[in-house]
Design brief:
It is a single chain. The protein contains nine helices and seven strands; from the N terminus they run E-H-E-E-H-E-H-E-H-H-E-H-H-H-E-H. It has 276 residues and is of the alpha/beta class. The chain has a single domain, classed as 3-Layer(aba) Sandwich (Rossmann fold), CATH 3.40.50. Strands 3-2-1-4-5-6-7 form a seven-stranded parallel β-sheet, with helices on both faces. The termini are far apart.
């Protein structure tokens, strides 16, 4: 299967290639705005349709992970519009024109982020009785979250009104880290390095509790994408991208039942950072 990954050099794109790149059934092609130092990459901007379009010829599936993900205090609407809205529309147009079968779209947990804002920090407690699944109302917490909802709805529009793509998977990704921070203590440890708090402080422990709930390990991320690439039953559907964390409030039963997703990691299995 020939698979094009947009945003291939990013945190999620590299997690997918690192997890699945050695599999004989896949031939991955990376696309990004900059070349990768170690992998051949098509250099193109998703916001420029003419640059983007040739990369879709001969492709069976597209994993669209190119994104503008700002800090939520100072969001840039113009950048969000250019990359997340126009860029996603361009990806769908190119997939339709090139007759690509499947599109996997990197959405975000921030499309339902107000549930967390409303209930934090109690929501990080494993006994807190809330699970948000694909049927619950969306409650975006940012313009970034709103832009990802556009992508989800545009994907549904394309599969229901065009011959191609035939399948669209909205993957609402929780927290994926780079390979060097693939553990639930990463955010807390960055705060120590930045001088924001000390280990064991309230701020540190809150970050640990949150990430133990939202962690989506790199191998579980790759596994989820594999399950989507192997699926031929979905026309449009929404799945939450999170590991099998005991503290999670995001549902994975829908992905278990519909895709055969079986996460291997649980943030609760960690009792300290790797170098502790």
């Amino acid at each position: 299967m020939d698979v094009l990954i947009t945003g291939a050099n990013g945190i999620v794109g590299t997690a997918i290639v690192d997890s699945l790149g050695g599999r004989s059934e896949y031939a991955f092609t990376g696309l990004d705005v900059e070349p990768h130092p170690d992998r051949e990459t098509i250099v193109a901007d998703v916001a420029n349709y003419d640059e983007l379009r040739p990369a879709f010829d001969g492709v069976d599936a597209v994993v669209h992970m190119a994104v503008y993900a700002p800090g939520f205090v100072d969001e840039s609407w113009e950048d969000i519009l250019r990359v997340n809205v126009r860029g996603t529309r361009n990806v769908l147009r190119a997939a339709a024109d090139a007759e690509v079968e499947s599109v996997i779209f990197g959405s975000t947990n921030h499309v339902v982020g107000m549930y967390e804002r409303e209930h934090a920090p109690e929501i990080y407690d494993p006994t807190f009785e809330l699970t948000v699944d694909h049927t619950d109302p969306v409650r975006p917490d940012s313009t970034y979250g709103v832009s990802k909802l556009f992508g989800e709805h545009d994907g549904r529009f394309f599969v229901e009104t065009n011959a191609y793509p035939k399948r669209f998977y909205a993957l609402r990704i929780a927290t994926v880290g780079p390979a060097s921070e693939d553990h639930p203590y990463a955010a807390a440890e960055r705060g120590v390095e930045d001088g924001r708090w000390e280990r064991g402080s309230d701020g540190y422990e809150r970050q640990v509790a949150r990430l133990k709930a939202t962690w989506f390990s790199r191998r579980d991320c790759g596994h989820m994408v594999d399950r989507m690439l192997q699926d031929d039953t979905v026309e449009f559907d929404v799945f939450y991208g999170v590991s099998g964390n005991d503290r999670r409030w995001l549902d994975i039963e829908h992905a278990r039942d519909g895709l055969g997703y079986e996460p291997r990691d649980d943030g609760e299995e960690w009792d300290g950072p790797p170098d502790a």
